[in-house]
Amino acid sequence: MSTVLITGAARGLGLEFVKQYAAKGWKVHACARSPESLKEVAGDIHRHKLEVTDYEAVKALASELKGEVIDVLICNAGVSGTEATVLGTLDPAVWRQTFEVNALAPLMMAEAFADHVAASKDRKLIAISSRLGSITFANNGRYSYRASKAALNMEWKGLSVDLAPKGLICVVLHPGWVQTDMGGQAATLTIAQSVPSMVTVIDGLKPADNGRFLNYDGAELPW
Cβ contacts of residue 94 below 8 Å, gap of 6+? Predict the structure, then answer.
């Protein structure tokens, strides 16, 4: 049986990832601040109450799951940031929280669970990032969110080098602009269009894909 661990699993993209992998017959470790909403999802689902910025709790969960083989780790938890998009209104507190959740927390998850993933057959370490983190595509506004995702992208590129000797496949995925609480109802994709496509992309990843930045449909994105 294959195993996946997903953060931010109680709603939006994370919840759909749980449903998709559970339907495939995988063992799912679903991590969320409020995992109670997962009780109605059918399958081999193991719910874990986890705040991803509580790094002692992250380490404790990694210790609890010591010896557990994790084929795919999906660092999905994130925040959009609430600052205005014009200079003169930047809020350092918003920046700190956005970077904490979007950039530091995924790296701490990767550090804590790298050996669990390395012990598996698939050995896939996935970060859900955003096209908005691409410097090539940079334009105005969304400063804290864009910068936090650019930092996440840089981290995963570094992990792809540092963890290559262990055979890990480290890939960044852009889910598209999706109709979630974060994306809003004006977004161009539904969750049902985005997540199954990402699962298909993840399923097809090979060692040669280590270090890539991919769209939800598998197309290459510039850093």
Answer: 81, 82, 83, 144
